[in-house]
Structure prediction request, 599 residues.
Amino acid sequence: MSQYLHFTLGPVQGFVAQARRTRDFWAGSFLLSWLTAHAIKAVQDAGATVVMPSVDEDDMLKMLNSADVEDPPKIGSLPNNFIAKAPDGFDGNIATKAVQKAWKSLANKVWEEDALDDAGVCKALWDSQIKNFWDIAWVISDSDDGAVLAQRKNWRNYMPPETVGDKCTMMGEWQELSGAEKPNPTQQRKFWSKLKPYGSLDLGENERLCSIAYVKRRFAHAWEHLDGHANWKLPTSVPSVSYMAAVPWLKQVIDANEDDLMISFHDAAKALNEDYGEWSTDILKDACQSSNLKQRFSSLDGRLFFEAELEQDKYKPLKPSLKALKQKFNVPSPFYAVLMMDGDSLGETKVAMGDATGLSQALAEFTKKVPEIVENHNGFLIYAGGDDVLAILPLEDALGCALACRKAYMQIFADKKVEQGKYSISAAIEYAHMKLPLTMILKDAHKLLDDVAKDATGRDAIACRIWKPGGIQQTWTMPWDKAVKDDEIILAGLAKKLGVNEDGNPGYASKLLYHIRETLDMLQGGGDIDSHAIEDMLVADYVGSGLLDGQDNKLQAARDLIQPLLKQCRIFENKEDTKKFRADGALLLRFLAQKGVEQ
Prediction:
């Protein structure tokens, strides 16, 4: 009888989603994949065969096996769990020991490279936190059904140690490394100032980290010093959320070839000793190829392009140059997007394909396609493994990226002749103001995907949410087949008509969109009113607004705009049309058209 090892490594949320910056977000995903790769290598070396996910072509695993890889991976590509067909008498502790050994080796290398002993870090505290962090579970079963691991995880035997003292500013349940029993700014500042990265982009002056968070923040600097990693380079910085928000605006400035404006701003920034915080970011590399000035201008810290971030007196010399850019190019949007995607009902898909191997291979194909898709949409990919996608993008590119990923996913299974309806993928997009805590946005992205797109809407759906500094503003969700027309997300197309469309005719106006909300609220969603009657009411309001004065056939023009918008305000529950409406679609349309900038 065949037997299978089911393995999982966590805590995922505790390690990945607890992130103050995008680099923490990326580091958590990357390291989780890397540690899983060590577990997979260990069980393969012991005679087991991994059946889920497909790992034969995984570059991260190839690197651990000293195979030739043209471009060593810089993002996570393996999920935190796997299933392996194991020989008789197999001991799952092999995988556990491999993870712990790799993690300890990396932590020790960070300790050595940053000379933390000389800086006065308590080795006992460091070792205790490193040793007791991971939550690892495994089970041997005669089935490859992943449900058996879920049952095993219910026997909780992971108990994080109780901690005392002041807490880590990234991972708040762990004690920060100074060992202070309670907040003592003077003492703690003196301690942290001795550390190598203090005051740099790696460690801000107000940050106090535990050993786990410190490894996440600094491991890339020690990476090439690990055994077997000499030719495996990793970025020591990743795009900030402020930079991702500014990307479309930066491209506009760069493409306009306004050298004088760029020189003035760049020189003012460098006079303030500002770092090239985005030097290794290559999102705008094509736009900057022709000019070293463009490269230097677009590599400045993303915060510098936002007036609201320049309140300190030291930034006063920079403001005239920013004002000149603003007069020419308006202002960048302060919003970025987090895209999270996940395949639906993989158990059903596996049955339709006949076995786990076929499903694993299909998901591996999808994983290979995602990086290029995200790159083509000006995004930064955090993780792509199996059916999961996690990326940060400019506001303008998130919907298009989600649609392109879905199209690739669906095409792969269609090409394999899998029965329609047995495969799909859902998406969640969080549009977040750059001042909001990234940890909060990441946590909510899981809820938006699982609770709204999948559970409430019924899977095979997309959900979007807008977060402003005051909190959640709108949540819009729609089945994919209702959200897309002519290979475009309908709301994205409608957003182009807000203001003046390509024909020079007036489109939607903000006042009208708010009036749609008032009308739908007054009708309590309109469940008891015929949808055509609601449409007629809104069309009449549009004609009466005066926005279409001077056009021929105002009635038809109004209907051509109101009809598709109203459909995007439909409420679906478990794939069923409730015949009710909610104005979130109209207000999301306004947000997309104005790019989050109030006018």
Summary: Residues 334-485 form a domain with the Alpha-Beta Plaits fold (CATH 3.30.70.270). The CA atoms of residues 22 and 240 lie 6 Å apart. The radius of gyration is 26 Å.
